[in-house]
From TrEMBL:
It comes from the Eukaryota. The keyword Nuclease does not apply. Residues 1-20 form the signal peptide. This is Protein NDNF. Secretory protein that plays a role in various cellular processes. Acts as a chemorepellent acting on gonadotropin-releasing hormone (GnRH) expressing neurons regulating their migration to the hypothalamus. Also promotes neuron migration, growth and survival as well as neurite outgrowth and is involved in the development of the olfactory system. May also act through the regulation of growth factors activity and downstream signaling. Also regulates extracellular matrix assembly and cell adhesiveness. Its main location: secreted. It is found in: Secreted. Residues 229-326 form the Fibronectin type-III domain. PANTHER family: NEURON-DERIVED NEUROTROPHIC FACTOR (PTHR14619), PROTEIN NDNF (PTHR14619:SF9).
Amino acid sequence: KMPCFLFYLPLHLLMTACLCHSIKAPTSGSQQSFKTNLFNFYHSLILADGKETTVHLLKDIPKRYYFALEESRTLAPFTITVTPCDVPIEWSILVHKASAILCLPAGDHNTQEISTSQKAPSMVSTIFNYKGNSVETYMGMSSHSALYMLEFLSTERDTHITVYLTTDTTSGHLYPELPMDPRIDVIGVGHTTVTLTWKHSPSVLQNRENIQYCLLVNEKHNYKSLCAAETAIRSSGMKLPPTLALSLSPYLLEPQQVMILSNSELSIINKASSGEVRQICVGTKNTYTVPNLSPSTQYYFDVFVVNLLTNASAAYTGTFARTLEEPEPKVTELKEGKVIQVVLDGKRQKLHSLQYQARHKKIQFTFQLCRGQVQVHITKNGKTVASENISGLKYFSLKGKLMDTYLVQLRSTEDSNSSVKVQVAPRFHKPLFPLLPESLKIKSFSKLRTCNSVTIAWLGTQEDSKYCVYKKRIEEERVWTELQSADRCSGPESRPKSEKVLCKYFYDRNLQRAVTTETIKGLDAGTLYLFDVYLFGPSGIPVRYHSKVVKTRKNC
């Protein structure tokens, strides 16, 4: 039988004894047990006071950290905050009183084994345990010398957590404080916006310079910490630049800027696109309207109050909201033979429907592109009959019958505004637009340029039609803007009379010879000019050729 001896040890020796009690010398058949105990020993570490520690956990392998408190005449407070960064974990706090029972085998003083199998049950006790993925803080008081052990375990997969221990509760908080009511209130919901408000953190009211709010927006779920958000972003395969790895740091963001994480790249921009996660830092404002959301979509919102000096944060209780459904686009009734002009904003489709009773089997849709780029989609009784990107003038001849319903869907393919003229009429209806040549390009002849004249040419048709030529001086830096902003549906009536050069009629039954040239004189040397040709049909509605920019010779 083993005699037991009770020793009251100094605190640092007690810590050594407690760390070493799990190591047993290998005996016959216990080699594997020794390796396991040795592994556990090297995973038992001292927890730093006043510093946030990152702890990496392997699945099903517990990890232990220790810290000691000296004897005090008054109650000494301490706090421990644990932040899971991914899956739920189990963690507990055990306390060892400042004494130990060491049992040595009688008569065998060479044995190195230290056994705790017969220590008093009151020596070690569990004072706290928790299981979950929420940020949890334990506040304790102690007046005796004691050794505390924190044990952490992840049963789902490898993960990491952060642990913060402090015994100094008088010099401020590492983590910003939350208000008594940490909920986020949704006070407004629109088609593309959600307005949020929350109560101020006491830390913001005390120290506005070093504290700010950051908002996290995503479509999946709420995050209980910034640490958890970072882990989710990393696990999705997105790449973070080294300066931003493991951090959504507000140091890098100006107020109102948005951090977008999408397409495996990270960028900080002022306009949201289809990002996975957005972080918006808003300074010390406690009301914010989140812009650029998608209609009829559920979003999750989290607010974190962040200490800029330490990058530590505290999470408000997350909320969610669903944006309103986008209103049905306005549908305009098209009337046979009537021309309407549609302006598209580049972001929203505009639908135009036609319902008519026809005595004729064929109808014709006519589209004249005025500005930008437009896609046309036509359905008849719900089935697609035509779909195309248009440029210039385009006709669609379709077979129809009584009570057929046509729906014309127009969409701008550019971010800027586009516009188009639309007409529908029976095929026998008098043409609204003139017969067009194969090409609407204007050609200039470089060899025929002089210091005060240029020669241009364009194609005509087999119909005798009127053509008017206009010119305009233009600065070189304005060329691109002029060409992009030109309204190809506007006629010469919108231009000053001083820009008119001439009008002429011509045609040729042989299309191979339906070409005309014109030499424009009285120009200035070394000057850029923009030339336009307008073709007028029987109805008087003009079609504008593509503008041509030509520069006169500087020296002759």
